[in-house]
Design goal:
The complex is a heterodimer of chains A (144) and B (144). Chain A is an alpha+beta fold and 144 residues long. Chain A contains three helices and six strands, in the order ααββαββββ. In chain A, strand 1 and strand 2 form a beta hairpin. The longest helix of chain A is centred in the middle third of the chain and has 20 residues. The radius of gyration of chain A is 15 Å and the shape is globular. Chain B has three helices and six strands. The radius of gyration of chain B is 15 Å and the shape is globular. The chains are: A alpha+beta (144), B alpha+beta (144).
Amino acid sequence: MSAKPISAEAPIMRLCDEPFVDFLGFREETLNGETRYFMDFRDSHIGNPMIRTFHGGILASFGEVTAAAHLARQRGDDEVPLCSTMTFDYLRPAFEGTLQAIPNIVRAGRRITTVSVQLRLEGKLVCIGRFLFLVGRNENENKT
Amino acid sequence: MMAKAFFGTNHPLFDTFKIDIGIVNDGHAEMSMPFSEQLSDRRGSLHRGALVTLLDTTCGLSIFSSLGSLKPIATIDLRVDFMRSIPPAAGLKAVVECIGKTDTVAFISGRAFAEDSGELLAMVAGSFAIGTMGPTLDSEAGGS
């Protein structure tokens, strides 16, 4: 494991400062040095009350918050970046339960970084999102 | 009345967001929400996730108004481009058109503005599946 000397704590602290992130019930857990991102169902997340599914906007928000947190952590930033474009595909209804978001930095370019996020409900893929951030490669990253 | 049925039953998310319905007419829908501390980011502006949620909800209403019924619909995909940061303490207004539809899919395009200044903040485009899982949204109230 090439653990980079990046503060894993700072972005978490800053993120938790955001009332909206609290409203989502966004949680982070660290397992074997890897951060995992979760969101538990709440009544205030409901889109369709008849079948108790997550609202599409809440799902996209969870994706964005995860993408931003993951990117900040990878860059070693203590502040989360703002997304400039999001594209989100809803693949299955997201029923009541605990969602996990799995982020991946697709490419960190000179000016734009693309992060993809999978949302899984009990292991099943329910959404995929792509998030563009107007932040370039962290110069320190090239030195490894 | 459709907009009433859309909101008539107790809906925790709409209550939290204090979403207000504006003009709704033949595929055109407008909705707004006031600034809320609970849904804000650390800059003291509404979080982008709140804006996406308002847009997604307005998309739904524009499609219901185009269909003339509350047949269940589900977001297939959504793209949101953010033009500028949401001003601190500002409420939001979303304006969405249902551009066209087939028997099974509806297509939308819309914009989000700062409520007071009218500044353009974001654009949305997306598609929604028509006639998806679950009863019609007004069936609990015994129709209308």
